[in-house]
Amino acid sequence: STSEAYSLLFKLLCDPGDAVLVPCPSYPLFEHLAQLDAVAVGRYAWLDAGRWTLAPDDLDTAISRRTRALVVVAPNNPTGSVPSPEEWLVIGEACRRHRLALIVDEVFTPYPLDASAATLRSIRPADVLSFRLNGLSKLIGLPQAKLGWIVVDGPDDLRRQALEALDLVADTYLSVSAPVQVALPALLEAGAVVRVQIQSRLQANLAAVTALAAGSPVDVRRPDGGWSVVLRVPRGGDPDDLPLALLARDVLVQPGYFYDLPHDGYLVVSLLTPEADFRAGIDVLCALPAALLT
Ligand SMILES: Cc1ncc(COP(=O)(O)O)c(C=O)c1O
């Protein structure tokens, strides 16, 4: 799956003690995935400025002598944001200047929300070794099928070397099962139906939270794509208070700090929840006593 693709790439690109640079906020498992391959994790920031914005100075200072790869998750989890064309240029330039490989996690590209599908496409420089990751988990909603893949791009010699080395790593682990490989064409075809159902639920839930939160202290940080939405609540204090108050009312959200969002006032909500439950949950959130929300 895509998690294993990360592990193969860390083995390919890093020696023990080398580092990969991952976005902040983002998918919380990077740290563990890297540690299990004896690789360190550095972070570069995406700032909440209406849209999630790359901080180029922060990116530069986060790159060390031991950094080997820069990871971009687009659309990002949980923010659903994608880099702008200008930000892709900054990312490409940083990879070129510091001789980093670029790893782009594209698992959420099939699910555009506020942006067009074309905007979700990554912009990678032709002279940088890059790896695009995807798999069945999000593409057709089958995480248990455990099939992922890596598309390798870049200069011919680097690409060839990378593919040969990846062949060796993948053959050593033999983790892909023959049944799922044989079934892949049929799964991809059948999965188109599921993808349409997922997309329609995501859009309905995003529209619902946008409408229900209007006029409340809850602010929706609109995602370009993906399966979740980040909500901003003007609240200081203990970041667990609000999620626990909601849990006591049978509503499950995640505090933003699970994803390295700032501790105060960020909640992450799944857009995959069945629509009636989702609306009920957002209703409960918006009706919480002011003392809990502000
Ligand atoms: C951004 C991102 N990348 C990768 C994965 C892992 O996917 P897989 O199930 O293919 O290992 C996830 C899982 O949620 C994810 O959110």
Account of the 3D structure:
Helices cover 41% and strands 20% of the residues. It folds into two domains: 2-177, 3-Layer(aba) Sandwich (Aspartate Aminotransferase, domain 2), CATH 3.40.640.10; 189-293, Alpha-Beta Complex (Aspartate Aminotransferase, domain 1). Helix 1 packs across helix 6 (156-173) and helix 7 crosses helix 9. The longest helix has 36 residues, at 178-213. The mean pLDDT is 94. The N and C termini lie far apart (41 Å). The relative contact order is 0.13. The chain is globular. It has a seven-stranded mixed beta sheet, sandwiched between helices. Strands 8-9-11-10 form a four-stranded antiparallel beta sheet, covered by helices on one side. With 294 residues, it is an alpha/beta fold.
Low-confidence stretches are none
| Proportion of strand residues | 15-25%
Give the total of domains: 2
**Which architecture of the largest domain would the CATH scheme give at its second level?**
3-Layer(aba) Sandwich
> What count of helical segments does DSSP give?
10
What is the name of the CATH superfamily of the largest domain? Type I PLP-dependent aspartate aminotransferase-like (Major domain)
Shape label: globular
Structural class: alpha/beta
Terminal-residue CA separation: 41 Å
Helix and strand succession?
A: HEHEEHEHEEHEHHEEHEEHH
CATH topology of the largest domain: Aspartate Aminotransferase, domain 2
Helix content: 40-55%
**Strands across the major sheet, in which order?**
3-2-1-4-5-6-7
Largest sheet: 7 strands, mixed
**Would you count the extended β strands for me?**
11
Any ligands, ions or cofactors bound here, and which? pyridoxal-5'-phosphate
- Summed over residues and divided by their number, the pLDDT gives a mean of 94
What is the C-level CATH assignment of the largest domain?
Answer: Alpha Beta
From the alpha-carbon coordinates, what is the Rg to the nearest angstrom? 20 Å
